[in-house]
Amino acid sequence: MPECSVSIVTGHGGHRVLLEIDSTALESPPLEHLVFYAGIGVLVGVGLVELPVAVTLTVGHLLIGLTNRPGLEALGEVIEEV
User: Fold this and answer.
1) How far apart are CA 21 and CA 12, in angstroms?
2) Residue-wise pLDDT tens for the chain (82 aa)?
3) Which domain holds residue 33?
4) How much helix, strand and coil, in percent to the nearest 5, is found in the chain?
5) For labelling, which of 14, 23, 38, 39 has a CA lying 20 to 30 Å from the CA of 46?
């Protein structure tokens, strides 16, 4: 029977779910990002945000996450402290 473990790890961009089965590890996107995407989906579902705006927000969020710019991260930390 395969050995399986699930854990939440913090680092490199947020809280992530880590699933390990035998020697294979799968890591989810940061949970904070998944909540953002779900929230955008809910806003579209109830009609508060139109689909093109939601797609633009989602793509922008993905691109900022992929660039890994230290200046943007520092700005985000300053904003969080306020």
Assistant:
1) 22
2) 778 888 888 876 678 888 898 888 888 888 888 899 999 999 999 999 999 999 999 998 888 777 777 777 777 788 878 7
3) 4-81
4) 55, 20, 25
5) 14
